[in-house]
Amino acid sequence: MSATAVQTPPPAAPRAPGAKAGRRRLSVPVLLLVIAAAVIVVSAVRAVAGADDVTSSGQMAGTLTGAVPIALAGLGGLWAERAGVVNIGLEGMMILGTFFGAWAGWAMNPWMGVLAGVLGGMAGGLVHAIATVTFGVDHIIAGVAMNILAAGVTAYMAKRIFNVGKAASEGGTPKQSPPMEDMKTFTVPGLSSGLAKLEKHHWFVVSDVAGVLGGLVTRISSLTLLTVVLFVATFFVLWRTSFGLRLRSCGENPVAAESLGVNVYLYKYVAVIVSGGLAGLGGFFLSVGTHFYLEGQTSGRGYIGLAAMIFGNWRPGGLAMGAGLFGYTDSLQLRSGTDSVHALLLLLAILLLAMAVWKYLRKAYVSAGFALGFAVLLALWYVTTDSVPSEVVQASPYVATLLVMGLFSQRLRMPKADGQPYRKGQGG
């Protein structure tokens, strides 16, 4: 006769004094309440400041236009850094995407431009992977070299291709390609026009919500829809598949990954090449948005994409929020100038005040003090002025991004082996 022993689980180990509990995820009801509160605050700022463009459909459309290339560059950085490779060369890979995408888009059609832009960025990613993974070059140095190399190569090729023959006769110059066709856009029939009617009434909250939604369903670019798909696919591949688990293990502990049979070199190569392709696609988005390649077109968006990725804590959702923040402020200063940016001062002051209260309740007194100080300064600036200088307007996207990143920096956690050199067998 055999007896079955009933085992009881051991008691949980007591938490060490001062140890922090794990982070709690926002439940759906709480998230909806946060969104509702944000909408009410923005509506109130729009009504008080009289800046109707703050929540207009045009503003939202401009936000998407500004956010997509940054989001794609940041998504590329996420792939590389999750595998342990710092990709400062995103800017150069975007430059390659703008040039090759515009060339193919003019010579053939925009969808061939998409393919050429992605391939151009992937070529840059391959060079970066060879330098960092195979030869062990410092990731920062290799990335800066990639940016310089890409700018030089495209400047040389533009003079050789766009300044002669058919290209020159159709408007090409040493610094600009001939124009190409636009990509197809999509509008949700009925819904778009209905939201536009509601927006015109300028009703509190109702018109603001209509304006935001209207910008998301009117003349949406095919590449914008493709970007949404890529974000969802990235989350699924990296966090819901065994391939993604192995890739992320290369960025956390490549020695342990190697001991389990993971080909670390292969996964790093794949990640950096995919990173370059996504950045190249972001570069082509800039080209097709203006209908031609222009030297210096990226304007540092690769670096901004990297900053958005860090702001998003190396996660797709947070990255999308960071890109949206920059896209919104960039669109605000381009469309409305001083009036809307002046209203943005009041909005930032309210948000910083809320952040100060939240930090105080969490006993993060230093962060709370900084947030409160900035809130008071911005509120005083808003009350004592009727507009802001043009220099501040132009710098507002960068200032807002740096301000938010600085206040959220304590919650960031990069992959443990990010940027660290790795050699096969080093764990033995």
Can you put this structure into words, describing what you see?
The chain has helices at residues 28-49, 57-82, 90-107, 110-134, 139-161, 165-169, 191-200, 206-217, 222-240, 242-252, 254-259, 264-290, 301-311, 316-335, 338-361, 365-384, 390-408; strands at residues 185-186, 220-221. The protein is mainly alpha-helical. Helix 4 (110-134) runs antiparallel to helix 5 (139-161), helix 13 packs across helix 14 (316-335) and helix 15 (338-361) packs antiparallel against helix 16 (365-384). The chain is globular. The termini are far apart. Residues 1-22 have low confidence and may be disordered.
Strand order of the largest sheet: 1-2
Order of secondary-structure elements: HHHHHHEHHEHHHHHHHHH
Overall body shape: globular
Question: In DSSP terms, counting alpha (H) and pi (I) runs of 4 or more, how many helices?
Answer: 17
Structural class from helices and strands?
mainly alpha
Largest sheet: 2 strands, antiparallel
Query: How large is the radius of gyration?
Result: 24 Å
Low-confidence stretches: 1-22
Determine the N-to-C terminus distance: 49 Å
Helix % is: 55-70%
What is the number of strand segments?
Answer: 2
The whole-number mean of residue pLDDT values reads 87
Q: How much of the sequence is in beta strands?
A: under 5%
Keywords:
428 residues; mainly alpha; two-stranded antiparallel ribbon; 17 helices; 2 strands; 70% helix; 1% strand; globular
